[in-house]
Task: structure prediction
Amino acid sequence: MRKYSRASVLNDLTIEAILDRLHHQADRQFGQLLLHYLPKLPRLFTSKGIRWETTKLDFYNDKYLSIERNQGNFLYLLARSINAKAIVEYGTSFGISTLYLATAIRDNGGGIVIGTEIVPEKVVEARKNIADAGLETFVEICEGDALQTLKCLNQTIDMVLIDGWAHLALDVLKLVDPFVRPGGIVVSDNIGTFKDDMKSYVEFLQDPVNGYRSTTLPLKDGTEFSVKVR
Result:
């Protein structure tokens, strides 16, 4: 069982109840994921990690693969600290991370979370969860391939969450990078799990020539925290 703090920083009982339900469902599913990855677990403890299964993407269609509570609290606090008004989220899934980010946007006085999700069924469920939380005004979910839907970006972005298909992370980042303002933040999940797939992505962020300062935090299996400095 994954470990995390159950304390919430949102101070909103309605949203916290929805998140509790979604986190609980994600935790129940975690056992299925462990069984699926059982033959590959030895790689998880090497420098390579598990490879993203591009030939078995249908397996993930009903999987949460979500951030944990401590990551969600971290995202909320980060968005509040920079007074974020526009956030891009690569990999909305069922909307867990979206709820943390949209709550921060609401509490900052308004703005938008631009989510991306390629699985239609997940889009439907995410929109329902967001509506149940009363946050639909602050969220726009773009259905389809993020490399296509995010081509429509035409505004300054304060914050980015990278939590979609690992093998496309760098392509997505390069697509949104021109819109990320100096001082903007990029947070990336799954750095430890998909080490091989995320290697070039992390190297890009940790190379100062690309305009970021970046470090890997010990949240979940590794969370990359990056600040755009120019």
In short: Strands lie at 86-90, 112-117, 139-143, 157-162, 180-188, 212-217, 223-228. The first helix runs from residue 13 to 37. Helices lie at 13-37, 41-44, 69-81, 96-107, 120-132, 146-149, 169-176, 195-206. The longest strand covers residues 180-188.
